[in-house]
Amino acid sequence: MTSRTTACLRALVLRAHACSRHHHHHHRTISTSVQGHPPTTTTNIPECYLPANSRPASSHTGPCGRVVSLRSHTCGELRCEHAGVKVALYGWVQYLRQDVFVVLRDHSGLTQVVISRDDNMPTGGIEVLAENLEVLNACRKLPFEIKDFLKKSESLRMRYRYLDLRSSQMQRNLRLRSRLSMRMREYLCNDHDFVDVETPTLFKRTPGGAKEFVVPSREPGRFYSLPQSPQQFKQLLMVAGVDRYFQFARCYRDEGSKPDRQPEFTQVDIEMSFVEQTGVMALVEGLLQYSWPPELGTLSWPFPCITYAEAMRDYGSDKPDTRFHMKLVDISEVFLNTEMEFLKSALSQSEGSIQAICVPGGGTLFKAKDLEALKETARTVFGQELSVVVLRADGSLKSALSKHLSPADTEGLLGKMGARPGDLLLVSACSLHTVRPLLGKLRLQCAGLLEARGVALRDPAEFHFLWVVDFPLFLPKEEDPGALESAHHPFTVRGQHYDLVLNGCEVGGGSIRIHKASEQLHVLKNILKEDDSLLSHLLEALDSGAPPHGGIALGLDRLVSLMVGAPSIRDVIAFPKSFRGHDLMSQAPDYVSEEDLKPYHISVTWPPAEGEGK
Amino acid sequence: MTSRTTACLRALVLRAHACSRHHHHHHRTISTSVQGHPPTTTTNIPECYLPANSRPASSHTGPCGRVVSLRSHTCGELRCEHAGVKVALYGWVQYLRQDVFVVLRDHSGLTQVVISRDDNMPTGGIEVLAENLEVLNACRKLPFEIKDFLKKSESLRMRYRYLDLRSSQMQRNLRLRSRLSMRMREYLCNDHDFVDVETPTLFKRTPGGAKEFVVPSREPGRFYSLPQSPQQFKQLLMVAGVDRYFQFARCYRDEGSKPDRQPEFTQVDIEMSFVEQTGVMALVEGLLQYSWPPELGTLSWPFPCITYAEAMRDYGSDKPDTRFHMKLVDISEVFLNTEMEFLKSALSQSEGSIQAICVPGGGTLFKAKDLEALKETARTVFGQELSVVVLRADGSLKSALSKHLSPADTEGLLGKMGARPGDLLLVSACSLHTVRPLLGKLRLQCAGLLEARGVALRDPAEFHFLWVVDFPLFLPKEEDPGALESAHHPFTVRGQHYDLVLNGCEVGGGSIRIHKASEQLHVLKNILKEDDSLLSHLLEALDSGAPPHGGIALGLDRLVSLMVGAPSIRDVIAFPKSFRGHDLMSQAPDYVSEEDLKPYHISVTWPPAEGEGK
């Protein structure tokens, strides 16, 4: 036995059998007692048949009381009323004090075990008096202690994930995720007749599937593809008459190094026949209400619903964080007769507009470097200059704009913005397609700055669900604005695409699908200019009496991370990859011998070494 | 509208709104009535608020009665008591009779809809009188009719899987699978505190993982591997203190063309800390009892349990079909003093034995070609000659052996075998390692032959679960009998490996794992001669206070296929691959352009064309 500090480092697995202290079974080698403080009545119950206090008795026993587990109770389960009861506990040593007290830990909590046999009675609601302790496994010196307050580097956490997962926060995250999934399944399967159907992950490459991993087969040149979603399969299941399908689907996306993305992720995938948009939305609201953990409060419904146009107009984003205001305001009319060249030129261009947001308290709270950071965002991300107007506490304006504004214009501007002394106005003038996303982004940046200055703007315990509807069917391609791409995906019925947003993050998206082959062909061939032969099986299926259908997919990792307030989805995934796509524990991906690649008829094309290439 | 035959071929999606016939709402354009036969009382209920008869009302509505689905009832739901009720039905046209009667089909069943408005009242419990029918989609001429009795080729079924799945048998299979999974989850998650944890499928190649698909990454030469099971992760989760883990895990195995195997399959993966073998077995028995569909009868428990040695001794198999007898009998002692050379030589070799099975009625039922087929199996699969002894109906023997047997020996043999006139004895003499699998295989072949001759030997509605325990830890490698391989896998504690067998098929396997790093290292390094550096992360984890733990994995596809009596696991998988690993609907795996392979630094090594190679 070692000192307290060292003992915390050594996670020994212990076994503590216990029996009634009031019936000193000295003939038993394995026995202790549970002491209540104050002591309560004593019951002697046959070992291993103890009903658990806070969980179903069946948790420890199987059918007809057959023993499933060696334990009688978990460490977090014992209460005063267990005094005198025989228990069998299993866990890890959290603390060892003076070789007398052992604090035993498992996933449910802690219990103090007294090793000494003298009749001392320490304070505390309950403790276990050990007559026998068995060390089940020894432990090397761990790379870090299992303590919640300990800050560990991300790479250390990932390399020793099996230790990192022992923290109470990660235990809570995994258990909440499991519980949420179970409740969702109950709602879909038991209450709404959905069928849980597993669809293949070894599939065919989809048109434009640049982000799909390939999997070589044993036939030369032929590859499977790991799909980004079961979209085709869910629609085929509707054609197959499955009527209501759901799946917690593993999806794959090869995006190289994007922060907070994972090469594999999970979506709650839902599809229904004979349904309209309102039906899918009502179903999802019911789903979240039913499965929402009570400790996170209750969800009110129906969820608010705004159009894509309203979201872009008011928040400059198609996934607005509605926990705070600071909405975008069109102030073009204030400047209709302006002499300022950059404003005039902005207004004269097609869809030109002058817009602003008002940051309450930003005028006094933000420092010069904050304003510079905001301008920097406008410049680097959007290629635009940003005008700032500081309202001093005395009501006077500090701005390059102010000298060009008449008192009436100033009054008009402040009135329109609802600005008060101490506030900050951010003004941008350019085309609508730029000014909205620009101010939308600055709005979030300002929220972060305000919070860094101590303003309680967004309550992490508040959950603002929001539907965004009436998306345009097609948007100009980001890389090639002359061509169009689907706003959602090419199987969507016009104007029937809906996104679910939580606290400014997209947590779901769906649509009513095109169910007529001729319409689908038109969209693929004439509008999106895709090679429709790659989807001939889907077109054939639609032509086989496909029912009207629609659905949604919820991003489970993102949803859970918002629910538990985790900064990254890596905190709600048991074994995530690093942002470079590596498993730091096992060192995957790893080198594979040429011999092992032979059956797949592939060989590695090594890039020229540094300094070697042309 | 077309003739009946053509209409059956055309699966049109229809919409039939209905209202009370007793309240002729002629002002409504979309209305029909439901007629009971004999008519019962009439209730007029607001549309879309109809309580469903056989399923929860919430199935059609969301929270607080908000409408989820457009239908008010499914086609299989209407009963006489719905007479007079307004309904909205959606489905496919199954039959069209004289342009008057439409039989509408959905996943739940059929309903007859009368299009004519005259007051005829045909027989049948209930029908829907349509005032409005809307065709929601048209349909090409299908490659086959959606009729259960229709025999289709496997390749046609696979190519048009979305039509094949419309059959009532496939609908039943998918729905039973979904229901079973749901019940299993309830038992594990709700009743026994298991945590559903998703583990990665993009992982590192395991030692000897010849059957693992590789997935190229964007780093030259580095590959992920699709794991055959989450074995390492489930053990790491125990080290992480998750205590009880389960997952319906997608697993991958690249075996090329093996009949009735799938490159991806699903296992119910379970692991527990602080548990012994009996605990895992009790848990699984409870799991199957809880989730067993009532229509398949009840399961009795505890399941019978035999040792590996007993299974091999009595059935010549480690997964015996215990629905029938025909056990192996050691008849060596009958022949201790035999003069027959091949028997003498068999007995003189190490572990030599003479064994036999008695096939009741085989002597009269089996034809000469049946006996030849049995001998052929012994010859081709095991390289052994088989002796057959036919007991004629008059009690006389027909066998090459008989003239070498004294009357006392004959009596001894027949007595030992419990043979009666009309029976057949199959006798084999060689080493135990051959004679047992040989007779085990012939036992099954004889069962098939007897059933082909009309004997009801194995009841497909009977479900005989059986535990096989006490497996040897290591078995000689099949390919290299001098070396050893793990009977289960290299993480198994000695003598703590158990298999679950159902009707002669292995449906699950598990073990108590090695939880001490030193023991695990010894097994990997000294016994199995594996490269332990590939498992260094697991060894490190065991050395971090790993608790004693064990678990099991159930093969869900196989289990469900046995439950529904399907000849192949392809009948319980929505979109299976062909035996060559192809998706016949989408033509996966498919060719991928060199351009698309570039980011993965691989190129295809084309084998030399026919006649070109050396």
UniProtKB/TrEMBL annotation, chains A, B:
<keyword id="KW-0547">Nucleotide-binding</keyword>
<dbReference type="InterPro" id="IPR004115">
    <property type="entry name" value="GAD-like_sf"/>
</dbReference>
<dbReference type="GO" id="GO:0005739">
    <property type="term" value="C:mitochondrion"/>
</dbReference>
<dbReference type="InterPro" id="IPR004524">
    <property type="entry name" value="Asp-tRNA-ligase_1"/>
</dbReference>
<dbReference type="Pfam" id="PF02938">
    <property type="entry name" value="GAD"/>
</dbReference>
<keyword id="KW-0436">Ligase</keyword>
<protein>
    <recommendedName>
        <fullName>Aminoacyl-transfer RNA synthetases class-II family profile domain-containing protein</fullName>
    </recommendedName>
</protein>
<dbReference type="InterPro" id="IPR047089">
    <property type="entry name" value="Asp-tRNA-ligase_1_N"/>
</dbReference>
<dbReference type="InterPro" id="IPR012340">
    <property type="entry name" value="NA-bd_OB-fold"/>
</dbReference>
<dbReference type="InterPro" id="IPR045864">
    <property type="entry name" value="aa-tRNA-synth_II/BPL/LPL"/>
</dbReference>
<comment type="similarity">
    <text>Belongs to the class-II aminoacyl-tRNA synthetase family. Type 1 subfamily.</text>
</comment>
<dbReference type="GO" id="GO:0005524">
    <property type="term" value="F:ATP binding"/>
</dbReference>
<dbReference type="InterPro" id="IPR002312">
    <property type="entry name" value="Asp/Asn-tRNA-synth_IIb"/>
</dbReference>
<dbReference type="GO" id="GO:0004815">
    <property type="term" value="F:aspartate-tRNA ligase activity"/>
</dbReference>
<feature type="domain" description="Aminoacyl-transfer RNA synthetases class-II family profile">
    <location>
        <begin position="174"/>
        <end position="576"/>
    </location>
</feature>
<keyword id="KW-0067">ATP-binding</keyword>
<dbReference type="InterPro" id="IPR029351">
    <property type="entry name" value="GAD_dom"/>
</dbReference>
<dbReference type="GO" id="GO:0006422">
    <property type="term" value="P:aspartyl-tRNA aminoacylation"/>
</dbReference>
<keyword id="KW-0030">Aminoacyl-tRNA synthetase</keyword>
<keyword id="KW-0648">Protein biosynthesis</keyword>
<dbReference type="Pfam" id="PF00152">
    <property type="entry name" value="tRNA-synt_2"/>
</dbReference>
<dbReference type="InterPro" id="IPR006195">
    <property type="entry name" value="aa-tRNA-synth_II"/>
</dbReference>
<dbReference type="InterPro" id="IPR004364">
    <property type="entry name" value="Aa-tRNA-synt_II"/>
</dbReference>
